[in-house]
Every structure is written in C-alpha cells, then in structure tokens.
Design brief:
Helices cover 52% and strands 12% of the residues. It is built from three helices and two strands, in the order ααββα. A two-stranded antiparallel sheet has the order 1-2. A hairpin with a 2-residue loop joins strand 1 and strand 2.
C-alpha cells in the first residue's frame, strides 16, 4: 500500500458541493447511496480527501468516455 502525505486541508460536504456545483443534499445522497466519493468521519464531522475526490471524478470521466 502506498502511503501518501496528508493534504493541506480535507474537504467538507459544503466544500465538495461548491467544488462540483451541486446542491449540498446531493452530496449527502451520494453518501447514503454509496455512489459518491469516499468520505470519512472525524468525530461527527464528514470529510473528503481531495485525492479521493479527484479519483472519483476521473472514474466518472472514464465511464463517460467508454
């Protein structure tokens, strides 16, 4: 397993919604349906690793090109 350095800042659900231009509720729906980028909890707070978000977006782009 490759160890990668921690990012400068993990994304909040609001950050992710703003970044992708979707409503905040969409981010939570992706989470419930397990269709969005991988997230994790820090206590009661939901966070997303920017690299995981990049990989998820790339997988969507690869799927659209196929």
């Amino acid at each position: 397993m490759t160890v990668r350095p921690l990012p400068d800042r993990y994304l909040t659900p609001l950050d992710l919604a703003d970044l992708l231009g979707v409503p905040l509720e969409t981010v939570y729906q992706w989470r419930r349906k397990r269709t969005g980028p991988r997230g994790f909890r820090v206590g009661r707070h939901l966070r997303f690793d920017p690299e995981d978000v990049r990989a998820w977006v790339a997988s969507l782009q690869d799927g659209a090109a196929a």
